[in-house]
Structure formats: structure tokens, C-alpha cells
Amino acid sequence: MNEYINNLVVSFSTPTMEKIIETIIVIVIFSLLRWIMSFTIGRNCKDTSRCYYLRRNVKQVYAILLIIAISYIWISSFESIATFLGIASAGIAIALHDAIANMAGWIFILSRTPFKVGDRIQIGKTSGDVIDIRLFQFSVIEMGNWVQADQSTGRIVHIPNSIVLKEPLANYETGFDYIWHEIPVTVTFESNWEKAKRILTGISEDKTEKLSNDAQAQIRRAAMKYLIYYKHLTPIVYTTVLGHGISLTIRYIIKPRQRRSSEEKIWEAILTEFAKHNDISLAYPTTRFYTQETLPTH
């Protein structure tokens, strides 16, 4: 143990200890000067916006001068300028980590092309149409959020390029230009659900069948690059029993930008057709109460 302590003491030679002490003194002095400047700005500055920018400039100047002062203290102890440059490069890499990551993301976007300007994408919690790709960030016109059915909110969202290396990315329009969409229609238990299903099947085929041929051709082209395979592209209606009725879910393919308009046309056709049949009623969550006189007898 004594030998270890002696070696540790020797390793911290007198010049090294002097430089450590000088570094601590410089940090204390600069910190004190920074505090005095910030305090003075706070006392004399009345404009909140101007105070913010003044404080930010003080912090930036403080950081630059502190780095220069500490470098001046320690540079003479480096064995060669190459060692200093190596350490400086490592420090710069750490300080500029986000900028370097954004440039790496930009290179990835250009080389692999996970999306391009004009594509509709979702990355993380943000969805939108790409309108610009730059060195450090790309921009999208936001969709969704408080607006329903993938419609635009009108906001421009700037996203760092580095996020493409961290978050899953969904592209609505690369490889296969269609998405699957579902419309659940719930009818009451007393309704003629078989008739309702035939009506929904006819409506879905009438409104969406023409898309299947084009989608089939796109799948053949996309299969050359991706493992995309769908056996059935025609619309279909699935039956499910819920607590408040029988759910008939229409499933069909549609282009992403036409999802809301197609759903509107299908719902209008459903409401028109169901109104013609007294034995079909739309269901909604309800609660039934029974009195003693109306309880069923066995």
C-alpha cells in the first residue's frame, strides 16, 4: 500500500501539481467573473429578450476564454504538438457530437434514400410530408396530431438528421404506394347482420376494386427490391362480436393521401343504404335497465 501511494505521489510531480492548482484558480476566477457579469446584466437590463441574449453571449465568451486559458496552462506539458492536437480533436468531437451525428444522418439519407422530398413519412412520434433536406436537419409539413385521418396541421417541423439513425422510420410511399385501411361498422344484435355484410361488401367493391389491379402491378415491381407479398388485394369484410353489437370491418387498400376522402365516400354510401332497410341499425354502447315486472320468466 505504501509503495502504491509513493508511486502515486511521484506520478504527480511538482510541475503537474502546479498546473492543477493553476487550472483550479483559473476556473474559480472565470466563474466569479461570469457570475458578476450575469448579476450586473440582471440588475441593469430591463428588456427580458435583450437580457437573455446578453447572458447567452457571456456564457459563450466565458467558455471560449476558459478553454484558451486552460490550454495555455497545459500545452507546454504535452510531449508533442501531435498529442495536443489528438486530445483537442477528441474534445472537439465530444463538443460537436450532435453536429457530427447530424452530418452522418445526412450522408445516410443521401446514400440509402430512406425518403426523399415529397414522401410522406413517420419517424418517432412525428408524421408528415418531407419538404426539405439539409445538412443538419430535414423539414416536414406535420400531419395528424390534433387533426384526424392524416390531414395536415399546417405546422413545419424541423427534425435533426441524426434521428434517422436512432428511430424507426416508416415511409408511406417508397416501394409500395398503398396502405391498408379499415372502417369498422357496428350493427345491433337484432339487425340482419348477414344482409348488412352483403351491403358493405358491395359498397367496398364498388368504391375500391379498381385500385387492386394497379396495386398488383406495383407489388410485382416492389418485389424486385423488397420481400412484399400479398395474396389478396380485393376488399374484404370481417365479422367480430363486440359487447354492444356485431362489428363488420371493411378492409381495403388505398393511397395514403386519399384515405380520408375514400372513407367519407364509403360512409356516405353506408348511411344511404342502411337507411333503406328497417332491419339494419347501427349500434353504439348502451346500458339496459330492467324492472321487476319486465324481468324475463323461465
A few lines on this structure:
This protein has 298 residues and is α+β, with helices and mostly antiparallel strands. The chain has eight helices and eight strands.
Task: Give a written overview of the molecule.
With 298 residues, the protein is α+β, with helices and mostly antiparallel strands. It has 3 domains: 2-95, no CATH class; 114-171, SH3 type barrels (Roll), CATH 2.30.30.60; 179-274, Alpha-Beta Plaits. The chain has 8 helices and 8 strands; from the N terminus they run αααααββββββααββα. It has helices at 2-11, 14-44, 48-74, 81-95, 97-112, 193-208, 210-222, 259-274, and strands at 120-123, 126-133, 137-143, 152-160, 169-171, 179-187, 236-242, 245-254. It is elongated.
Structural class: alpha+beta
The overall average pLDDT, rounded, is 81
Show unreliable segments: none
Portion in strands:
15-25%
Number of beta strands: 8
Gyration radius from CA atoms, angstroms: 33 Å
- Helicity level: 40-55%
Task: Provide the succession of SSEs.
Answer: HHHHHEEEEEEHHEEH
Shape: elongated
Distance, first to last CA: 92 Å
Number of helices: 8
Which architecture of the largest domain would the CATH scheme give at its second level? Answer: 2-Layer Sandwich
| Biggest β-sheet description | 5 strands, antiparallel
Strand order of the largest sheet: 4-3-2-1-5
